[in-house]
Amino acid sequence: AESKEPARASASMTTTLTLRVVLFYVLSIFLIVCAVNWRTVAPGTSPFVTALAQVGIPGAKLMMNFIVLTAVLSCLNSGLYVTSRGLFALAAFGDAPQALTPLTRRRVPARAILTGSLFGYGAIIASILSPAAVFSFLVNASGAAMLFLYMVIGIAEIQYRRSLGAVETKKLPLKMWLYPW
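Given the sequence above, the corresponding structure tokens read:
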């Protein structure tokens, strides 16, 4: 909604996200499997640290902790951004309290940011009170929700394109990989 060219931004984002997943996850797991016998990776220890230590890189644990901290902070930042924009959009369409719609002079949805932050602090408190249960719930719920969400989006996109017909589908600004298969 905030992009000057949303179709191009979406296409670019999809491509870079795919490349990042392949580069940072698939390739890194491949390298770990090449360096470490998978039977020797102990639960509760980082396979990345194990691989780097086995290869002989000093300070591997400190380096990985720094990388994980950076990744967590990045996820927190994007989660807060998405949450605040989502709350703002829901409020603008009447699906959330209207108190979340005002913007600051710099056009920032501060109330939506604060509301999302409060729920984040609530999650932190819950994780302190019951860390194992909250972690297990969040991992399982978020994974299941993401799979379900992407499946519904994919099905909706396929149905939408089928309803347009072949000629109109070719006029759409974004192409769907491997459509109609």
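The chain is about 75% helix and 0% strand. Try to locate this feature in the token string yourself.
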